[in-house]
Amino acid sequence: MDSGEKKTVRTIAVASGKGGVGKTNITANLAIGLSRLKKNVLILDADLGLSNIDVVLNLATKYNIKHLFNGEKTLKDLIIDGPEGVKVLPASSGIQELTTLDEFQRLRLLEEFENYDGDIDYLLIDTSSGISSNVAFFCMAAQDIFIVTSAEPTAMTDAYALMKVLFTKYQEKNFKVLVNNVKNESEAADVYKRLSSAAEKFLSISLDYIGFVPHDDSVHKAVRQQRALVDLYPECKASKSLLTISKKIINDNPNHIKGTLQFFLGGLLKVQC
Protein backbone atom coordinates (compact mmCIF):
# COMPACT_ATOMS: atom_id res chain seq x y z
CA MET A 1 0.00 0.00 0.00
CA ASP A 2 1.34 3.45 -0.91
CA SER A 3 2.35 5.24 2.31
CA GLY A 4 1.12 8.48 0.75
CA GLU A 5 -2.40 7.16 0.99
CA LYS A 6 -2.15 6.62 4.73
CA LYS A 7 -3.81 9.19 6.95
CA THR A 8 -1.88 10.82 9.78
CA VAL A 9 -2.27 8.85 12.99
CA ARG A 10 -0.98 10.28 16.25
CA THR A 11 0.51 7.64 18.51
CA ILE A 12 0.87 8.35 22.23
CA ALA A 13 2.54 6.02 24.72
CA VAL A 14 1.26 6.50 28.28
CA ALA A 15 3.91 5.31 30.74
CA SER A 16 4.70 5.78 34.41
CA GLY A 17 7.71 3.92 35.71
CA LYS A 18 5.86 3.07 38.92
CA GLY A 19 2.62 1.10 39.10
CA GLY A 20 -0.41 2.36 40.95
CA VAL A 21 -0.35 5.96 39.74
CA GLY A 22 -3.52 5.65 37.65
CA LYS A 23 -1.93 5.32 34.22
CA THR A 24 -4.47 2.87 32.77
CA ASN A 25 -7.41 4.83 34.14
CA ILE A 26 -6.04 8.02 32.61
CA THR A 27 -5.50 6.32 29.25
CA ALA A 28 -9.09 5.06 29.17
CA ASN A 29 -10.58 8.43 30.07
CA LEU A 30 -8.39 10.42 27.69
CA ALA A 31 -9.49 8.07 24.91
CA ILE A 32 -13.13 8.83 25.65
CA GLY A 33 -12.35 12.53 25.86
CA LEU A 34 -10.75 12.43 22.41
CA SER A 35 -13.70 10.44 21.07
CA ARG A 36 -16.08 13.13 22.34
CA LEU A 37 -14.04 15.60 20.34
CA LYS A 38 -14.90 13.65 17.18
CA LYS A 39 -11.66 11.69 16.97
CA ASN A 40 -11.40 7.97 16.18
CA VAL A 41 -9.41 6.37 18.98
CA LEU A 42 -7.82 2.95 19.39
CA ILE A 43 -6.32 1.88 22.72
CA LEU A 44 -3.54 -0.69 22.56
CA ASP A 45 -3.23 -2.44 25.92
CA ALA A 46 0.54 -2.88 25.88
CA ASP A 47 0.74 -4.53 29.28
CA LEU A 48 0.78 -7.69 27.24
CA GLY A 49 1.06 -10.22 30.04
CA LEU A 50 -1.35 -8.56 32.49
CA SER A 51 -4.33 -7.01 30.74
CA ASN A 52 -5.89 -3.96 32.42
CA ILE A 53 -7.90 -1.82 30.02
CA ASP A 54 -10.63 -4.44 29.55
CA VAL A 55 -10.94 -4.76 33.35
CA VAL A 56 -11.14 -1.00 33.93
CA LEU A 57 -13.86 -0.65 31.29
CA ASN A 58 -15.59 -3.98 32.03
CA LEU A 59 -15.18 -5.25 28.48
CA ALA A 60 -15.84 -8.84 27.49
CA THR A 61 -12.89 -10.19 25.52
CA LYS A 62 -13.16 -13.45 23.64
CA TYR A 63 -9.73 -13.13 22.05
CA ASN A 64 -6.59 -11.19 22.91
CA ILE A 65 -3.18 -10.41 21.53
CA LYS A 66 -1.93 -13.93 22.31
CA HIS A 67 -4.20 -15.19 19.50
CA LEU A 68 -2.61 -12.67 17.14
CA PHE A 69 0.93 -13.86 17.86
CA ASN A 70 -0.18 -17.49 17.57
CA GLY A 71 -1.52 -16.75 14.09
CA GLU A 72 -5.04 -17.75 15.08
CA LYS A 73 -6.63 -14.32 14.64
CA THR A 74 -6.03 -11.03 12.83
CA LEU A 75 -5.90 -7.57 14.35
CA LYS A 76 -9.41 -6.90 13.09
CA ASP A 77 -10.66 -10.02 14.92
CA LEU A 78 -9.24 -8.82 18.22
CA ILE A 79 -10.37 -5.19 18.33
CA ILE A 80 -13.47 -4.70 20.45
CA ASP A 81 -15.86 -1.82 20.98
CA GLY A 82 -15.36 0.22 24.13
CA PRO A 83 -17.48 3.07 25.49
CA GLU A 84 -18.43 6.04 23.31
CA GLY A 85 -16.93 4.69 20.11
CA VAL A 86 -13.46 3.95 21.48
CA LYS A 87 -11.84 0.79 20.08
CA VAL A 88 -9.67 -1.46 22.25
CA LEU A 89 -6.98 -3.99 21.36
CA PRO A 90 -6.86 -6.13 24.52
CA ALA A 91 -3.78 -7.75 26.01
CA SER A 92 -3.62 -11.23 27.50
CA SER A 93 -3.69 -12.06 31.20
CA GLY A 94 -1.16 -14.27 32.96
CA ILE A 95 0.95 -15.02 29.85
CA GLN A 96 4.52 -14.54 31.05
CA GLU A 97 6.17 -15.05 27.67
CA LEU A 98 4.48 -11.91 26.34
CA THR A 99 6.20 -9.67 28.87
CA THR A 100 9.14 -9.50 26.43
CA LEU A 101 8.34 -9.49 22.73
CA ASP A 102 10.72 -11.19 20.33
CA GLU A 103 11.50 -10.19 16.76
CA PHE A 104 8.89 -12.52 15.29
CA GLN A 105 6.16 -11.02 17.46
CA ARG A 106 7.17 -7.50 16.47
CA LEU A 107 7.04 -8.46 12.80
CA ARG A 108 3.64 -10.03 13.31
CA LEU A 109 2.31 -6.87 14.95
CA LEU A 110 3.82 -4.77 12.17
CA GLU A 111 2.20 -6.91 9.50
CA GLU A 112 -1.21 -6.75 11.16
CA PHE A 113 -1.15 -2.96 11.59
CA GLU A 114 -0.10 -2.59 7.96
CA ASN A 115 -3.12 -4.63 6.90
CA TYR A 116 -5.57 -2.97 9.29
CA ASP A 117 -7.96 -0.71 7.39
CA GLY A 118 -9.82 0.78 10.35
CA ASP A 119 -10.12 4.54 10.68
CA ILE A 120 -7.76 5.77 13.43
CA ASP A 121 -6.90 9.34 14.42
CA TYR A 122 -5.25 8.53 17.74
CA LEU A 123 -3.53 5.37 18.92
CA LEU A 124 -3.10 5.40 22.72
CA ILE A 125 -0.63 2.83 24.03
CA ASP A 126 -1.12 1.89 27.68
CA THR A 127 2.30 0.50 28.60
CA SER A 128 3.07 -1.75 31.53
CA SER A 129 4.69 -0.33 34.66
CA GLY A 130 8.43 -0.29 35.20
CA ILE A 131 11.35 0.05 32.79
CA SER A 132 11.22 -3.29 31.00
CA SER A 133 12.22 -3.80 27.36
CA ASN A 134 8.52 -3.87 26.40
CA VAL A 135 7.99 -0.44 27.95
CA ALA A 136 11.01 0.98 26.12
CA PHE A 137 9.89 -0.74 22.94
CA PHE A 138 6.43 0.86 22.88
CA CYS A 139 7.62 4.26 24.13
CA MET A 140 10.23 4.55 21.43
CA ALA A 141 7.83 3.36 18.75
CA ALA A 142 5.31 6.09 19.64
CA GLN A 143 5.40 9.70 18.53
CA ASP A 144 4.69 11.16 21.97
CA ILE A 145 5.46 9.84 25.43
CA PHE A 146 3.24 10.88 28.34
CA ILE A 147 4.84 10.25 31.72
CA VAL A 148 2.19 9.85 34.42
CA THR A 149 3.34 10.49 37.97
CA SER A 150 2.02 11.62 41.34
CA ALA A 151 3.38 13.57 44.29
CA GLU A 152 4.70 10.41 45.95
CA PRO A 153 8.52 10.40 46.06
CA THR A 154 8.65 6.82 44.72
CA ALA A 155 6.43 7.77 41.77
CA MET A 156 8.67 10.71 40.87
CA THR A 157 11.83 8.63 41.30
CA ASP A 158 10.51 5.90 39.02
CA ALA A 159 9.23 8.39 36.44
CA TYR A 160 12.70 9.95 36.32
CA ALA A 161 14.30 6.49 36.08
CA LEU A 162 12.17 5.66 33.03
CA MET A 163 13.07 8.91 31.30
CA LYS A 164 16.74 8.34 32.12
CA VAL A 165 16.67 4.87 30.49
CA LEU A 166 14.92 6.17 27.38
CA PHE A 167 17.35 9.08 27.10
CA THR A 168 20.62 7.28 27.81
CA LYS A 169 19.84 4.13 25.80
CA TYR A 170 17.68 5.51 22.97
CA GLN A 171 18.49 9.26 22.99
CA GLU A 172 14.84 10.19 23.55
CA LYS A 173 14.52 13.82 24.61
CA ASN A 174 10.81 14.58 24.38
CA PHE A 175 8.53 13.81 27.30
CA LYS A 176 5.22 15.24 28.45
CA VAL A 177 4.42 15.07 32.16
CA LEU A 178 0.91 14.43 33.48
CA VAL A 179 0.58 14.71 37.26
CA ASN A 180 -2.19 12.61 38.78
CA ASN A 181 -3.95 12.47 42.14
CA VAL A 182 -2.70 15.76 43.60
CA LYS A 183 -4.41 18.20 45.97
CA ASN A 184 -4.44 21.12 43.58
CA GLU A 185 -2.71 22.80 40.66
CA SER A 186 0.00 24.18 42.91
CA GLU A 187 1.04 20.71 44.06
CA ALA A 188 1.02 19.51 40.45
CA ALA A 189 3.25 22.41 39.42
CA ASP A 190 5.66 21.56 42.24
CA VAL A 191 5.89 17.92 41.10
CA TYR A 192 6.53 19.00 37.52
CA LYS A 193 9.14 21.55 38.62
CA ARG A 194 11.05 18.96 40.66
CA LEU A 195 11.03 16.42 37.83
CA SER A 196 11.90 19.04 35.26
CA SER A 197 14.81 20.39 37.33
CA ALA A 198 16.28 16.91 37.75
CA ALA A 199 15.91 16.13 34.04
CA GLU A 200 17.52 19.41 33.04
CA LYS A 201 20.37 19.12 35.56
CA PHE A 202 21.32 15.47 35.06
CA LEU A 203 20.06 14.65 31.56
CA SER A 204 20.13 18.10 29.92
CA ILE A 205 16.58 17.67 28.60
CA SER A 206 13.50 19.83 29.02
CA LEU A 207 10.12 18.36 29.92
CA ASP A 208 6.73 19.56 28.73
CA TYR A 209 3.74 19.84 31.05
CA ILE A 210 0.49 18.38 29.69
CA GLY A 211 -1.69 18.92 32.76
CA PHE A 212 -2.88 17.45 36.07
CA VAL A 213 -5.75 15.46 37.53
CA PRO A 214 -6.77 16.34 41.09
CA HIS A 215 -7.50 13.82 43.82
CA ASP A 216 -11.18 12.92 43.60
CA ASP A 217 -13.08 10.24 45.48
CA SER A 218 -15.15 9.67 42.34
CA VAL A 219 -12.12 8.07 40.69
CA HIS A 220 -12.13 5.11 43.05
CA LYS A 221 -15.90 4.79 42.80
CA ALA A 222 -15.69 4.59 39.01
CA VAL A 223 -12.87 2.04 39.14
CA ARG A 224 -14.85 -0.17 41.50
CA GLN A 225 -17.85 -0.01 39.16
CA GLN A 226 -15.60 -0.66 36.13
CA ARG A 227 -16.84 2.43 34.37
CA ALA A 228 -14.98 5.35 32.85
CA LEU A 229 -14.84 8.32 35.19
CA VAL A 230 -15.83 10.87 32.53
CA ASP A 231 -18.86 8.73 31.75
CA LEU A 232 -20.04 7.96 35.28
CA TYR A 233 -19.13 11.25 36.99
CA PRO A 234 -18.82 13.83 34.21
CA GLU A 235 -19.14 16.83 36.53
CA CYS A 236 -16.44 15.89 39.03
CA LYS A 237 -13.17 17.83 39.10
CA ALA A 238 -11.06 14.93 37.85
CA SER A 239 -13.34 14.40 34.84
CA LYS A 240 -13.15 18.06 33.90
CA SER A 241 -9.36 17.99 34.14
CA LEU A 242 -9.16 14.90 31.91
CA LEU A 243 -11.40 16.52 29.29
CA THR A 244 -9.26 19.66 29.42
CA ILE A 245 -6.15 17.54 28.77
CA SER A 246 -7.94 15.81 25.86
CA LYS A 247 -8.53 19.20 24.26
CA LYS A 248 -4.92 20.17 24.87
CA ILE A 249 -3.74 17.02 23.11
CA ILE A 250 -5.71 17.94 19.99
CA ASN A 251 -4.44 21.52 20.07
CA ASP A 252 -0.83 20.46 20.68
CA ASN A 253 1.87 21.83 18.41
CA PRO A 254 1.96 19.58 15.32
CA ASN A 255 5.69 20.24 14.99
CA HIS A 256 6.21 17.83 17.86
CA ILE A 257 4.58 14.99 15.96
CA LYS A 258 7.20 12.80 14.32
CA GLY A 259 5.13 11.13 11.63
CA THR A 260 2.22 8.83 10.89
CA LEU A 261 1.25 5.32 11.92
CA GLN A 262 4.11 4.11 9.75
CA PHE A 263 6.52 5.75 12.18
CA PHE A 264 5.03 3.66 14.98
CA LEU A 265 5.27 0.52 12.90
CA GLY A 266 8.85 1.19 11.87
CA GLY A 267 9.77 1.98 15.46
CA LEU A 268 8.59 -1.45 16.53
CA LEU A 269 11.55 -3.03 14.76
CA LYS A 270 14.22 -0.51 15.69
CA VAL A 271 14.13 -0.79 19.48
CA GLN A 272 16.54 -3.39 20.81
CA CYS A 273 15.53 -5.49 23.80
Write the layout of secondary structure elements.
Elements: E1 10-15, H1 23-36, E2 41-46, H2 53-56, H3 65-69, H4 75-78, E3 80-81, E4 87-89, H5 103-115, E5 122-127, H6 133-141, E6 144-149, H7 153-170, E7 176-182, H8 185-203, E8 208-214, H9 217-224, H10 229-232, H11 237-250, H12 261-270
Parallel strand pairs: 1-5, 1-6, 2-4, 2-5, 6-7, 7-8
Antiparallel strand pairs: 3-4
Helix pairs in contact: 1-11, 5-12, 6-12, 7-8
Tell me what the structure shows.
This protein has 273 residues and is α/β, with parallel strands linked by helices. It has a single domain (14-254), classed as 3-Layer(aba) Sandwich (Rossmann fold). It is 45% helix and 16% strand. It has helices at residues 23-36, 53-56, 65-69, 75-78, 103-115, 133-141, 153-170, 185-203, 217-224, 229-232, 237-250, 261-270; strands at 10-15, 41-46, 80-81, 87-89, 122-127, 144-149, 176-182, 208-214. An eight-stranded mixed sheet has the order 3-4-2-5-1-6-7-8, with helices on both faces. Helix 8 links the parallel strand 7 and strand 8 (208-214). Helix 1 crosses helix 11 and helix 5 (103-115) packs antiparallel against helix 12 (261-270). The protein is globular, with a radius of gyration of 17 Å. 46% of the residues are buried.
